[in-house]
Each structure stands twice: as structure tokens, then as C-alpha cells.
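Quick illustration for those who missed Monday's session on complexes.
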Amino acid sequence: MRSRAGHRHQLKKSGVKAMFGRLSIAVIVLVICVISLLSTIKSTSRSFSQSEIKVDNLWNTASSGEWRPSSAPRTAWPPPSKGTNGYLRVRCNGGLNQQRSAICNAVLAARIMNATLVLPELDANSFWHDDSGFRGIYDVEHFIKSLRYDVKIVERIPEIRKNGKIKKIKAFQIRPPRDAPISWYTTFASEKMKEHSAIYLTPFSHRLAEEIDNPEYQRLRCRVNYHAL
Ligand SMILES: *[C@@H]1O[C@H](CO)[C@@H](O)[C@H](O)[C@H]1NC(C)=O
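Prediction with 2-acetamido-2-deoxy-beta-D-glucopyranose bound:
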């Protein structure tokens, strides 16, 4: 009797075991189905929202997360002085982005020297074999106007009347040292400028140090790059 009951008990036990096995497989299959269903719903809703993107919004400025534009002066920044120490001519060289940063440096160099900047000359031949000058690439009026509180800029070196003759000021040519410090501009270059009324810096790429311990000078370079050009 005892063994029979035990046998029945065993049968019952194995039946329960098998049921649990089947049940757990069913549960696993169900879970997989639910997950795959959820993921398809998610991906379809994503593709739907993609088609909802407004193209105009794509070009909006991204949220800055409390960062402020850094190009406006934050300390006393007087407009360029009435007088001028002379004219600064530069000849940019290299690729277009290199020449663009050279223009930023030329504006800063003119500011440092209290000079009038002559519209920077671009090296048209070296890379793109196209003789578009500054005017062909940038908006000259906008460039001069947007920097009016920073430097005086003229399109070309002026003519002077000397002994009844009209002559162009001849700029004294200098090859600036690479990554020249501010002090080179306030001493050597400024002296030559006062001596000759105009200097011509060529070549002019990487001729002013990138690292300058003066935030206002760095902001001026930003104003040129992001607002004037
Ligand atoms: C430029 O002008 C400022 C302000 O008038 C003056 O402090 C500075 O020494 C001048 N720099 C040169 C190189 O003349």
C-alpha cells in the first residue's frame, strides 16, 4: 500500500514538474513576444517623429546650456583713436581657412598698434587658382562696418600730396616672425610704422601668437571670425 501510494505520489510530482516546465517555456515565449512587440512599436514611433522634424528647426542654434557668446567686450573697450600710427598692410597666405584666421590676426594687430588696417590682401593663386580677392569672398562693407568700434579699416592705402605730386604711401615691407608675440607689434613693428607711415607684413599666416593672455584680444579675434567675415 505504502509503495503504491508512493508511486502515485511520484507520478503526480513528475506531472507537476512537466507542467511547470511547459509553463515556464510559455512564459519565456510570451516575454520575448512582448519585448519584440514593444521594440517594433518604439521604432515605428521613432520613424514617425523623424518625419515630423521641421527642416527650418534643424538650422537653429543648439541650446547653449548657460554658455554665453564670448565675442562682445566685457571690460572697457574704447573705440579706435582719432589719430593713427600709420597703415597696416598684410598679405595672407595658405589655404582659405588659414587666410581667414590671418585676417582675424591682422585686425588684432592693427588694434594693438593703433593702426589703420588696409583691407587684407589674399593669396589667390596658391590653392584655388582663382583670382577672387577679399571682395570676391567677403562682404567688405559689412566687414568694415561691423568692426567700426574696434579698428579703422580702409580699402586701399591713401595717396599723399608731396611737393605738389600725388603719391601712394609706400609701405615698408617686413617678414614677421612666426607666432610673433604682442610685444613684437608694440615695439619693432610700431617703430617701423611710425618711421615709414605704413608697413607691409608678408607673408602673414600664423604671424601672431595664438595664446594671448588678454581675453579682450581673443574676443576681438572671435568678433572678426564669427561676426565680421
Ligand atoms: C595705442 O593707444 C593706446 C590708447 O591710447 C595706448 O595706451 C597704447 O600705448 C597705444 N599703442 C601704441 C603701440 O601706440
